[in-house]
Amino acid sequence: MYSRRGFGKIVLAATALPTAFGGPIDSSVNGVRLGATTYSFQDLRRTTGEDNVGDIIEALTACGIGEIELYSANLEPAPAAAMKPAFGPSYGGAGARTVLSGGQLGIRKMDRENLRRWRLTTTASHYEAIRRRFEDAGIHIFAYALDFADDFSDDEIEAGFQQAKALSVEILATSTTPAMARRVAPFAVRHGIRVAVHNSANARDPDRFATPESFAKAVAMNMRINLDIGQFTAANYDAAAYIGQNHENITHLHISDRKRNLGAHEPFGDGDTPVKEVLVLIRDNKWPLRAFVEYEYAGMGSSVEEVRKCLDYMRACLAS
Description:
This protein has helices at residues 4-13, 53-63, 102-121, 124-136, 154-167, 178-191, 212-220, 229-234, 239-246, 275-285, 303-319; strands at 28-29, 32-37, 67-71, 140-145, 171-174, 194-198, 224-228, 250-255, 257-258, 265-266, 290-293.
């Protein structure tokens, strides 16, 4: 975990940092649009009510990233609950599995209700101002990631789409359940915003989107796919083959590297995920698929340093 002052030193110490002040940052390589999900910067922990957007923009600029999936937790007040991660599904996302004590459960429930209230009362101007901050830094928000949990009210779902509209995004990405996807689908039609479901690695869980068959059900609901190729590999599927056959239904990729058989996240190139094959496939076919880093392995450096390593690996794949 880094303080704001400590994080600033990391950014300033980085070599050959790109600047956005001359216009939009171009992070594409040989026609492939590279970027990151801001979920990757999990060491930028927040305090309750802290605005983390400035740190995220600094991190993206340091990495030379011009296009992103913006994770909702970056824009919201942090929970007060102890033992919380910086981001993730523990306070309103799909799939939380943490076992907590009675006292912790009470705090978590209070955090959840506070977050729901904040989402319902925060105006569009909050998100419009955030969009302008990214635009001023030369960073395009392609997708907004909001995990629709089973406890979302209809009003909270509606608020999520209003947030996406205020951010002017093309895609609302979500880790959710098939039951919630059916609830969300009519909102997507009404607002004219495409929803893309993010996949889990647990292909045995019927309450997750993880298999090609579950993706087909999402597409039948007029949804699209935000394919995490590391998760797909961990579920023992072939990401390159799937993309080749279904690229028209995929909005963007999360690039991570995992071992098969629900194996661990690894530094890029050390796992079983066909990262290079996927990137070359996009390049050679000129498909408009964004390839966004999702940094999740246990790296030795800060998230900024590790995301830069991931991007360097991807650039090398596309250059050869």
